[in-house]
Amino acid sequence: MHTWEDMKQIQPLVSKMLINSFKKNRISHAYLFQGSQGTGKREIGLLFTKAIFCPNRDGAEPCHRCNACKRIESGNHPDVHWIKPDGQSIKKDQILHLQKEFTYTGLESNQKVYIVESADKMTVNAANRLLKFLEEPSKQTTAMLLTENSHAILDTIRSRCQLMAFQPLNAQNVEEKLTGEGVSESTAKLLSQMTNNLSEALEINADDWFANARKLVIQLIEVLNNKPNEALLFINHQWMPHFKEREQLQRGLDLLMFWFKDLINYELEREEAIIYSQERDRMEQMSMSWSRQSAVRGLSSILEAKRKINQNVHPTLVMEQLTLHLKR
Asked: Which residues of 150-178 are buried (b: 16+ CB within 10 A; e: fewer)?
């Protein structure tokens, strides 16, 4: 459960704008929540929805105790609809189903809310159907589109939404909170670079998969530096069996990317920016055979690999190509 006071600490500007919309009784029919992962889009969407339905609201603050608040929190309110990607995308049928639901009278009031997560993943047909929905807004309907990439959303959809720009969270604050939870300084620094979401960071830290992923990244670095001819063998027999899912592979590539950023920062003597702080000896050794230019090229190759994974290129092929680029 989050309150507006909580959200002000994370997203002060967005929180202020949404609170003012209640004070002035000017709730928009559609909002576009734009911001990177972990910046509070879903949490604020949930809180805003509670405030819309709560009969005991104090200003913009819902009571969090009434039947409506509890059902919204648990995802069981009949007039609140969440749309999420079905597989890799949000499909036309999902939007058609939503439209059908909205032809019915609200079960408890005439107010309805729908929240589209990862709205940038709508297919073209789904986006066009949603556009028609937005073109004929009901005064008692509120839409929230959540996205990490608003530029991937149709201009015509963006123009019909009030944009809420969620600012990146301060990594230093996340790091401090993690160390306060008993996470080691080196791990806290790494996790704060991976996510701005404290709860997600703690979940990742508690997962043995993550600890093994870190070890595999360091092992791959060792192989690339000392036994480059064995790198493809390592990828096929050790790396790919661990990073089975695309999301896992993206996380592994992030960990690898941080290493190459560290190498560049080490060369530039930016000690405070180094993430793998416990690997300075290995970094010093590697810097003797990897120039700053080669580290920059390696970083570029990793970013290209991440892009290909998002485009559904075969993961093993992507990693094999990346390994060939990273070999000295």
From this structure: beebeeebbebbeebebeebebeebbeeb
How many Å is the Cα radius of gyration of the chain? 23
CATH 1.20.272 residue window(s) in the chain: 207-326
Give residue-wise pLDDT tens across range 59-106.
999 999 999 999 999 999 999 999 999 998 999 999 999 988 887 766
DSSP 240: H
pTM of the model: 0.62
Q: What is the CATH number that goes with domain 207-326?
A: 1.20.272
Determine the Cα–Cα distance for residues 149 and 177; give it in Å rounded to an integer: 27
Class of domain 4-165: alpha beta
Please report, for residues 176, 179, 189, 191, the alpha-carbon distance to residue 183 in angstroms, rounded to integers and kept in the order given.
Answer: 9, 5, 10, 10
Q: Can you tell me the distance from the alpha carbon of 64 to that of 70, in angstroms, rounded to the nearest whole number? A: 7
